[in-house]
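Standup, Tuesday
Yesterday: got the pipeline producing structure tokens again.
Today: sanity-check two examples.
Blockers: none.

Example 1:
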Amino acid sequence: MQVNPVSEVSFKCTSNVKPTKKVEAVTQPIETEKTAMPSAATLQAMHGIKPQKMGVAKPTPVTHTNYEASQLIAEAGVFLSKRDLKNVKKVLAKGDEQTSNVMMQLELIKNGDIESSTLSHYWETGKMNDNLAKDLDMVYEARKAGKNVADVYVPNVKSQAEGNKTTKVGDVFKVADQDKIYVKTDENESRQLDMDKDMFIKLFPPAKRFTTQQQSIGDCYLVSTLGTLMNNDKARVALYEAFHQDGKDVTVKFKNGYGEYKYENAELPKDRVQKYSLKGSTGIRILEDAYGLDSVNKADANFKKIMNEKIAKKREEVEKAPMNKKADAMKSLAGHQKRLDDYLEAKADPNRTVVVCRDDNFYNIYYEEDENGLKFADLKDDPDNKSDKFHRAADFYRGSLGGYNFEVMERFGFGGFRQWNLNFEEKEVKAQMMKDNFNKDYVMTGGTRASGGRVENPVAEAAGVYGFHAYTLEPQKDEKGNLTVRCTNPWNTSYDADISYDKFLEYYDSVSIVDVNSYGKNLPLQEQPVKYGKDGAIMDKDSKEAPVIWYNNDKTNAQKVEVKKA
């Protein structure tokens, strides 16, 4: 099929549509003193659905009238946009497994277990996330059997060996005589987490751990990657291992991070602006916040490193300069030294919020500079913050110019990364996606082509596909081996939507594929594409010339690799 030239916006987004205002339920996920909810079978029977097996089953067809569907939604205290209400009613009228899942979800919302917002951004062709549906099953089955949901979610076992045998990869368990729990990392292996059972449940309660929603800040690259990691059985261990418990507090430390970030009572500080923080489990919300703080430290470290290197070079120039050039060289050295001194002074002032000015070019972020080296500004005065959008440097760094999925993967400790350009490597990407067990051993994220500028504009709204946006992607094969792609919009990770492979190529311009088995092994991270023209020179970002060599595999020197257009 015909595809457009690669755009410079893959894997990044800078803004988000304003979500419909909704009332959130109080979330206390699995306290045992609550009255047990109706079981899955009971709930289905109440609404005329005849189950064929325990838990979520394939129900016999039943049609809810608009009135009955509205009653179910109203009883749960859910306030939906007209579009979402229409789509949810359609699901409730199907009388299939998805109907049963949503009915369970409404009961959980009514009971205060998960937020009402999890039904927002409900795409017309969407389907409930499989992991969310499994968690709903687990809660209902536990309550039907009169069991403590916490003990089903985090089972107690006699030994680590027993936990390895009885627990699924990505799930956790508690060994009887130990406070800290374990996570199963592979078929026959597990590792101990640095937190106890109660802390884990507070950070990652069942069902809610899979219901993440991006808010008004433009960090779709980050939210989609967090959702991607959570939804892969092997990869989610990276999220869990970022936390370290100290009594009631937790500290977050990324494997390839730039600092440690403490959260008292394992909660976001009260000064955080709600609309700038995602909705979802406490653990995911903290990780989003910590990533922003870590990005501030990364920018700070890079600023000082680059400026010190420039100052050292300027000193050499002063020493080597002839007498008629020495005054200019000394002036330049003094300007650079003054810039660094001013920055250090500003950073030390508690009344100032300082950010390093940045610019972007294709897949790389550069720091802006003038004759005195790298530039910085007070956040309130920064050109990228004209509307006073960001209150903290952390918000600026995670949302200002967007960012890249691969950066998040690297920060969490994944290597063996490869990014693919769909304009030139479509055949290679398809071969990767057709691998058996692809979704078990790999995670894939992607960026849609620009559609009307640097904002997310609807491209295939029924499937939740918007231009200039980042997504979780999962290849799916039907019985005949036909390939489709499951797309998950970070505006609500509770729901996926499938599109054809041809549409996938039309909507997306690049994807990144990460081997989840690379986690913690310090494998080299393959760097991102740099576009070259036919003469071998790096192309201007606005150039429309078709590149013939574009791949960069080194952080300092571009490695030219010829790419033939398919």
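Example 2:
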Amino acid sequence: MSAPSPSNPVLKRCWQVFAALAVLGLAGAARAQPPGALLHPWVHPGNAFMEQNGYHGAKTCLLCHAHALDEIVHTVHWSLASPVSNVEGLPEGSWWGMADRQCALAGCMAAANWLASTDGKFTVQSSGCGLCHIGSLSAPPMPGKAPTTAQVQTVDCLVCHAKVYDWSKRATLVKDASGAHWGEDSSLKSALSVTRVPTNEACLRCHEHAFSDDYKRGTPFTASNDVHARGGLRCVTCHLTEHHKIAKGLYESDMVANDLPEVPVSCARCHGPSPHTGALGAVLNAHIAKLACQSCHIRRVSGIVYENWGQPVRDDVHGPISELSRYDHIASIRGAYVPTVRIVSGPPSYMWRVSNAPGHPEAQSWMAFATATMRTPGAKIFPVRALTQIMLFDRQRKMWQAPGMAFMKDNPQTALLPLLLAPNRAVYNRTGNVTLAVAAGMKAMGVPWSGQWMAMRVPGTSYISVNHGIQKTGLACASCHARHGVMDFKALGYSSTEVRALETALAVGRSGAARGSH
């Protein structure tokens, strides 16, 4: 028995395409089989319609994908936040994420920096937060607040689903009836390049700082840098998706919001609990009890390890390459001011982490500090990029006086923390005047400040999680089990006796004492 054909010609065409796939047995196969498994490359069924009628943004996609927009606006990619649980220092169930959290690398918050640009265009130096938002909004979304119909219709489907995308069109400010916002590539050329699932390149448009290889995490998921990318795996192979929600994983130290907090992103899902074989297989598999796979298989990271927002410097004083991103060769902007930074490339730092699943009170800090120790049940050593931050604080007001932060007043560890200030990056880059930049940023957020700022080191060291840049061959045993190895066992909490045993493990053989200490 066949279903009635819709009277709407567009819906009728969609139905005909789906019916044809069902008859051929390909509707399920397209989802179930890996890329390249079908005899013919997948082609978007709606291309013929768009060639005839043009592409008109999300409204065109909505003709066939009726529920897509409603799904998207209930994701972290739209809200930039989610209800959180099990995050140290945050009220249970409150909405948190990049929408209301200070970003150390950008030096400010989304509301203070949504449209920050350099002469109307995006640069690494300007770092306008709205650039990577999947909707073309004039201001960031309010966590927990439903978007309007007009806002929903600004969703840019192609920035994720198009293989061909002109980033320069998106990275330019547009002014229209809705206000000022970042643009998008809604060309027919881009629309006709839609892929069945987002490509890695599409994800990296935003997730490596808009094409920057090193500035954000320092371990880009590219064929030249990661064995999984080289083998053809896609981001969504590990980051499972469900109705446009994407699994982030449970071991992030610096990202609070999570679409699917119950879904792990785990090496063991593909490699099993005992992945090593051969003569050293048993010894290496024993390490998994205390070491995350990434700790051995990520050899190098790069990027900012020190950043001082209280000392603006001219970006071009060090030459033609940006002081903010020298490793990926992004050009300096003559006359622009940037914070004083130190950038290194080398082995990662290491810290103890436990899963962010319920039941782990030391799972995650909202300020990306280390919360677990070697004594925490279930903790493993993970690689991270340590970041020392000199940020801008109010000389008079406290953090708990900011909207939504009253919970900090009752905590003796946070009650005296000064109000963290958020400069507007456009003003900061243009003038190098910290006072003017902070005034503009705090005005944009609607948060009062005293007018007096101070540069202060953020208490503790923040950590940026690294999970890509995986190499097939891990670190050699002597990289860790030697004096002055890449891993600082003392800093990780081992006693002097344990440190000596770990550093001399190779010299004395794999003794029970050495293995037990590890």
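Quick observation on example 2: The radius of gyration is 25 Å. The chain has two domains: 43-263+280-465, 477-517.
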